[in-house]
Amino acid sequence: MSDIDLDFTIAQLGECRIQSPMSGVRFTRDSERVLYHARLEEIRIWIEKRADPPAMEAAGPREKIFFEPSQLACGIVTCGGLCPGLNDVIRSIVLSLYHLYGVKKVYGFRYGYEGLVSTYGHKPIELTPDGVNRIHEIGGSVLGASRGPQDPVDMVKTLEDLKVGILFAIGGDGTLRGALKIADEAAKRGLKISVIGIPKTIDNDVSFVQKTFGFETAVTEARRATYAANTEAEAARNGIGLVKFMGRESGYIAAYSVLVDSQVNFCLVPEVPFTLERFLAELQQRLERRSHAVIVVAEGAGQDLMAKSAERDASGNVKFGDIGIFLRDAIKDHFKKKGVEISLKYIDPSYTIRSVPADAHDSAFCLLLGQNAVHAGMSGRTGMVVGFWNHQFTHVPISLATSARKKIDPAGALWSSVLASTGQPADMR
Ligand code: F6P
Prior knowledge:
Elements: E1 11-12, E2 18-19, E3 33-35, H1 40-49, E4 55-58, E5 64-65, E6 73-78, H2 86-101, E7 105-109, E8 125-126, H3 129-132, H4 152-161, E9 164-171, H5 173-188, E10 194-199, H6 215-234, E11 239-245, H7 252-260, E12 266-268, H8 276-290, E13 292-298, H9 323-338, E14 343-347, H10 360-378, E15 381-382, E16 384-389, E17 392-397, H11 398-401, H12 413-422
Helix pairs in contact: 2-10, 4-5, 6-7, 7-12
The chain binds 6-O-phosphono-beta-D-fructofuranose (F6P).
């Protein structure tokens, strides 16, 4: 999609006629915009045309709102894999609805979209400020989560039966697509139901959102693994530390783990193909030079090197081969054939780094995401996610957020910094 075609228009359920009960705050005007581009040269073409460059709606409380708070019920659902900060976001939504707007009825749907389908029999929980008071101190999701889509007709029926006016859907790509289907189905049936997404993915791969919550916590935790890998590798002659992180199609955790711990010598991500021969040759040279090496690999890297599987998970993702185990065995095999004795330690902290509570910075980030999601819902916006762009909270149409996965640009600044830190060749094909 070219920048010229970007359409950041947010759907709206109707006119905002009700005065917000909030006072003493700075209200955001509907006309406020956050620039999509951050560099002058990128917006030059619009300046020359005397037109507005692409920009997103700024998030924040509106002076006039769409829903009458005293009559409103809301729902929250968490879907997909875990991520640090899920409970912080749930808590922030409940507290914001209650304290900022006076909304008293908030349902927590259990186990992802299953909780919105009556035949599963998962009864929704009523979420109150007291009930969510300390949930941010623990990892996971107090609501539980699940993968996979459900029929929007069934889900909208549940929302209608419970008279839910705003549904907050916390999840990644698949969840957000599901959220849009709920919004479309509600609109088709003439129901005034707002659906607001809060993007959640440990892989940090949602488009038009610079950073998703929990990512920073995960990278912080990742450091324990790279630290251990390096310590083990340095303590052995021809020591190799190999660490596998999550990252199906985007290797952000792996890439940032390199920047956090610059002891890493090789970073392998899905966005940058490599051959086994070339990688092993480079690794061998590194051992000859320095007697130890640390490798981080994202789960989606090097999938072309392994047998493909036709199996899919409940989200519809192709089941990947285990690149960590594959590399571990290939490295051992290679050096055995060369008659070189190595000491390889393999660490797979995938689930460890996503099940922890959010760190301080992520907690604050989650609080603000939750508040802004509530402001957006109360103003009758729908089919959108709360984003973070150029250090500001924004509204992004779900259609754009799910249009493609955000990936590391192998020609961009992040990857260039990773290469500068590891010292690995730019091309290992
Ligand atoms: O949601 C994306 C992700 O973090 C991927 O990186 C990983 O493949 C997946 O979740 C694993 O989650 P689960 O094992 O819970 O399906």
